[in-house]
Amino acid sequence: MPRGEIDEAWIEEAVRRYRRIETLQAEFDQAVATVEVTVRSPDGLVEVVVTASGRITNVRFLGPLHQRNPRDVAGSVQAAVTAAADAAQWAREKLHNETFAVYRPLAGA
């Protein structure tokens, strides 16, 4: 194609791809807000449910607390919350890879 001419087919394809990316981004955003991951503290005392966005939606104690040292309980909570943050990151990456797996860059098409 001579320099200065506009490749309308390329522009149409770019617009089509841009719209597809917008749709995929909306799907990804929805999934990140709704997909949940459940983790437990290493001692099994605390269970945390977290969305892929990192929002904690539930915390449960799976055993009695009355005979436990408060520092131990606090450590269990901290471990479960840390694991929940890691799980949320993992879930976001997994969702991103699944959502955008079919996307190919326009360059070289």
Annotation keywords:
alpha+beta, rod-shaped, 52% helix, 3 strands, 109 residues, 3-stranded antiparallel sheet
What does the model show?
The protein is α+β, with helices and mostly antiparallel strands and 109 residues long. The protein contains two helices and three strands, in the order αβββα. Strand 2 and strand 3 (56-61) form a beta hairpin.
Q: Topology, pairings included?
A:
Elements: H1 8-34, E1 36-40, E2 46-51, E3 56-61, H2 70-99
Antiparallel strand pairs: 1-2, 2-3
Helix pairs in contact: 1-2
Shape: rod-shaped
Beta-strand content: 15-25%
Class by SSE composition: alpha+beta
Helix content: 40-55%
Low-pLDDT parts are: none
pLDDT averaged over residues = 90
Taking Cα atoms only, what radius of gyration do you get, to the nearest Å? 22 Å
Report the sheet with the most strands, covering strand number, pairing sense and barrel closure: 3 strands, antiparallel
How far from one another are the termini?
A: 16 Å
Give the total of beta strands: 3
Order of helices and strands: HEEEH
